[in-house]
Design brief:
mainly alpha; 0% strand
């Protein structure tokens, strides 16, 4: 029974079906991408977005092609701006985390910073030599 099924659906038909399927997937992907670009745009209002959406739904091939032709530079520019904004936000978060780590108690500088703080306390007379030695040993043990 399986040999008759294989004979009923030859290799070129399988190849053609795969081409059609992947073309359909690419079309869906492209439409999602274009609609996403339309809705993220800040330079047109609601009526402009609605007009593009209606145009792309009523005449999908023509609408998608005209949008790609008319907005190709704008799409690239908006993507570049979004990537730069994301990169700047990431850099700001990294710098904020690094600054918080440096200013955190017991966080920045490690053992050397702790020993330096203890040396300052010893110089001010707040602690004695025995307490300094204990703090130094504790800082070196943690590191």
């Amino acid at each position: 029974m399986s040999s008759t099924l294989a004979a009923d659906y030859p290799f070129l038909d399988i190849l053609w079906t795969m081409i059609i399927f992947f073309t359909w997937v690419m079309w869906i992907w492209m439409m999602v991408y274009l609609f996403t670009d339309i809705f993220r745009r800040q330079d047109i209002g609601g009526w402009g977005k609605a007009a593009w959406c209606v145009f792309m739904i009523v005449l999908p091939f023509l609408g998608a092609l005209i949008y790609l032709i008319a907005q190709h530079d704008g799409i690239a520019q908006r993507n570049l701006e979004r990537m730069q904004a994301a990169e700047q936000a990431f850099d700001a978060r990294v710098q904020q985390a690094a600054a918080a780590q440096v200013h955190a108690p017991n966080g920045g500088g490690g053992a050397a910073a702790e020993i330096e703080k203890a040396r300052g306390l010893l110089a001010d007379g707040t602690i004695n030599q025995a307490e300094f030695d204990k703090l130094k040993a504790k800082a070196l043990a943690i590191a």
